[in-house]
Design brief:
This protein has a domain of 47 residues. The chain has five helices and four strands, in the order ββαααααββ. The strands form two sheets. It has a two-stranded antiparallel ribbon. A hairpin with a 6-residue loop joins strand 1 and strand 2. The N and C termini lie far apart (53 Å). 4% of the residues are buried. It binds zinc ion (ZN).
Length: 142
């Protein structure tokens, strides 16, 4: 039987005969990682999916208006940690984006941080997704 290395945990596994192109092992956290990447890619590449997800989340928030307020009240450690993490994310942003600290996924950025060092991660096609990433430097040509 052919052995492969899981894209998430890096351990070897035998692909199931039903899924000959399997890239992730059967562990729950690796399957969750696979699903998260699939959703992220789908949101970026399928406008209908992105719109449907946004509408579903919006209507859920409308039907549960107090959910997040109550969650934050009953999970102060989560709230404190999230606040700290958001400060760190804001600090990493470029000055151009720093003006509006929390991005709205529906809004287009006013200015792109086009100069700098970036991590480029393959998300499609599926055969490349999660397997390749590069550090790239974007600078002005002389
Ligand atoms: Zn795995």
């Amino acid at each position: 039987m052919e052995k492969r290395w899981c894209n998430a945990c890096g351990e070897s596994f035998e692909p199931r005969p039903q899924t000959p192109r399997q890239l992730y092992c059967a562990k729950a956290e690796c399957q969750q990682s696979r699903k998260r990447l699939w959703q992220k890619t789908k949101r970026k590449t399928d406008d209908d999916y992105h719109e449907n997800q946004a509408q579903a989340q919006s209507s859920w928030r409308r039907d549960h208006p107090d959910y997040w307020r109550r969650y934050r009240e009953s999970h102060p450690e989560y709230t404190a940690a999230n606040r700290q993490q958001q400060k760190q994310r804001n600090a990493r942003r470029s000055p151009a984006l720093h003006a509006s600290p929390i991005a709205n996924s529906d809004a287009s950025p006013q200015a792109l941080p086009v100069l700098g060092i970036f991590k480029l991660i393959a998300i499609a096609p599926a055969t490349l997704a999660g397997q390749h990433e590069w550090i790239v430097k974007i600078s002005l040509a002389p």
